[in-house]
Amino acid sequence: MSGEHLTIPTAAIGTWAWGDNGEPGYGYFGSGISRAGLEEIADKAHAAGLHLWDTAIVYGMGRAETLLGEVLKRFARSDYQLSTKFTPQAAGTSDHPVADMLEQSLARLGTDYIDMYWIHNPADVARWTPQLIPLLESGKVKHVGVSNHNLREIELANRLLGEAGFRIEAVQNHYSLLHRSSERAGILDYCRSQSIPFFAYMVLEQGALTGKYGPANPMPSDSDRAGTYNALLPQISALTQKLASIGERLGATTPEVSTAWAIAKGATPIIGVTRPNHVDGLVRASQITLTPEDLVELEAVADTVKVSTRGWWEREMVV
To answer: Of the chain's two ends, which shows fewer C-beta atoms within 10 Å, N or C?
Structure first.
């Protein structure tokens, strides 16, 4: 697997929760994670051919990148691909803030190149996008993408890169059964027409679409996600029940069906993995075949669930 060629897997492994401080109940997700557990995750992912790891400097302000770099040292660099991000809101005041943030990521991850480097959000597309060009020319970045950009912003970024002979090579947005604005805004269609891979994050809505949580079993009260989702769990239960019933027919779990839906829609889901068994579920999800009727049924139920799971960092994609 060469860094020059981005190999798009069926699913990617997300490390947002790795940025939590490691204490159960604290941080964004409230997920307790151990170094030994993360190493087991890496071994399982490696054996299963899940080679693309997605992280960002702002996940725990360096904690996730540092942990990921340490865990992946056990493998040859050519055996995995790294995806990390430039976050405009965390930019420094130097003359080259994108290059400077990249250098910080390279140091934490223990590598001299990044396979996929994203602009995390569209704070100023005309300002930040051209700063990717020298990084591509230097070889420190092999491929570039944009995250949380709407269709007009994606097209602008593509045009700016195109002037230097490069292009947007991936788009990464929040996309789930409960949040389909990228689809409704025509972004998935655009990506298909341009042969641009579309990566979907928050496919499981931070656990709300796993069936693990419900009104009687809410998310950890001292985690950030609880503030968003616990009040919504009663409305979401109709959808998790539909996911579970389809799963029963297929011999699959609720999160596996949620993930298989995104794959069936042509997306590459980025699934947050904090336990080794999550890797097993990701492998099974990639092997599930949902029928067109399954997709219609799931989306019909999802459309009756009148909740908004748009993150505070996101703007609405439909403009």
So the answer is: C
